[in-house]
Amino acid sequence: MSPxxxxxxxxxxxxxxxxxxxxxxxxxxxxxxxHWPGAERVLPRLSRSANHGVLWFATAAAMAASRTPRSRxxxxxxxASLGLASLTINTLGKRSVRRARxxxxxxxxxxxxxxxxxxxxxxxxxxxSAAAFATGVALESPAWGAxxxxxxxxxxxxxxxxxxxxxxxxxxxxxxxxGAAFLVRRLVPTRxxxxxxxxxxxxxxxxxxxxxxxxxxxxxxxxxxxxxxLHEALPKAEVLECAPEEIRDTLAKAAxxxxxxxxxxxxxxxxxxxxxxxxxxxxxxxxxGGTLNHFAYDLGVEDERDLARxxxxxxxxxxxxGRFVTADGSGLFLNTLSLGVYPELVRARDRWSHRxxxxxxxxxGALRVLRADExxxxxxxxxERRPLWLxxxxxxxxxxxxxxxxxxxxxxxxxxxxxxVHGSRRPALxxxxxxxxxxxxxxxxxxxxxxxxxxxxxxxxxxPLAYDGEVTAVSxxxxxxxxxxxxxxxxxxxxx
Length: 496
Fold this sequence. Notes:
Blueprint: H1 13-33, H2 43-49, H3 54-64, H4 69-96, H5 125-140, H6 142-161, H7 167-187, H8 191-194, E1 213-218, H9 224-233, E2 238-242, H10 247-255, E3 260-265, H11 267-280, E4 284-288, H12 294-299, H13 304-313, E5 316-326, E6 329-333, E7 336-340, H14 342-356, H15 358-372, E8 377-381, E9 384-395, E10 416-422, H16 427-437, E11 446-451, E12 453-467, E13 470-490
Parallel strand pairs: 1-2, 1-3, 3-4
Antiparallel strand pairs: 5-6, 5-13, 7-9, 7-12, 8-9, 9-10, 10-11, 12-13
């Protein structure tokens, strides 16, 4: 070792840590000595409200109550991020660094919490939860994230203000919480990340103020608020509200004078509008207003803001449609068509989904099928008569298919997604087992195929056929065909 080397000039890790801790304490004392206008009544209460995540659970409930898919997804992602952050803090963070809480002498008594925490100080669990929830929400919905962020920041700041944490505790907790949110996104990508580029793009009129757009709204769907918001965004659009039994006549009258036909309602109402739009060669603008809104959500239109943006800029795509042809006529389906017990299962599921959620409602529908003990449907396929418990046909491939609704990422794939449960011994019990276990594809009695045309014969008279929430009776022969890129529909476009 050289005798000229001065070891005291080389800061050790211990010395650097000691300096950081000293600086941390000085900042804490400065914050305690500073007057925070208006904070005495707010920050201590806000800090207490965040105990055990109560504030964030209440915020998530309020977000979910808005009943928009984006809000619900943001609430769920926020809570998932909070849960991961809390788990990490309680299992690793607090036990790894046993730092004592700050001494409360510099903190005015009016700021101090009535019940002081007894856990170690580093890192701040409140700051971690606040940052995790706010970041998770923002990753799914920037608008909700902007609303939640000031509250989360205030909760984090309140931990220093009330004297229960040093500033570095809060910064470390916030960093850990934000990291938890990004880890959740890595495990479960946001809708924006899995959003496929819109294709194929279509030419459609750009209506900056909605001039030429005629929107028919199903009054029974409770769409008044959404229609009002759309009209505020597109003030020159014409809005016609009508009863369910007047939908088809009103759509026909609207199409006669519209450049763009708009519709607000559930999947059955949208189905009727698509028929009229195809017949008149008009582009369709869909505003979701029903319970499930499969077509609008798979399309990428979740609320009036999405639709207004697309209409203003003329952003549209071409999508497929499915058509069924019987001896008595024909019909269109944008989502699904089913024969056998599935129509009854869907009716039962829809009856309960708004109360208990999609998956439990699917199980209740399966229980209804199980109790009914109905006989399998018999159809003739390729000259051979076969018993089928149910037949499901999707307009496009569903990537998660069970008794709860699946999702499609491509509405112009040119395919009919055909899935069946074969008629066999105790098929209803097998169907229930599939509902409990997961996707329908796990059922041993299940088969699937993707085609662009399907012909069924030998169907008994009066057999119910369900399509997009509507039910009709068929008999004899049913032919299903795919109509590739048949319909032009507005949707907001996102670059890949």
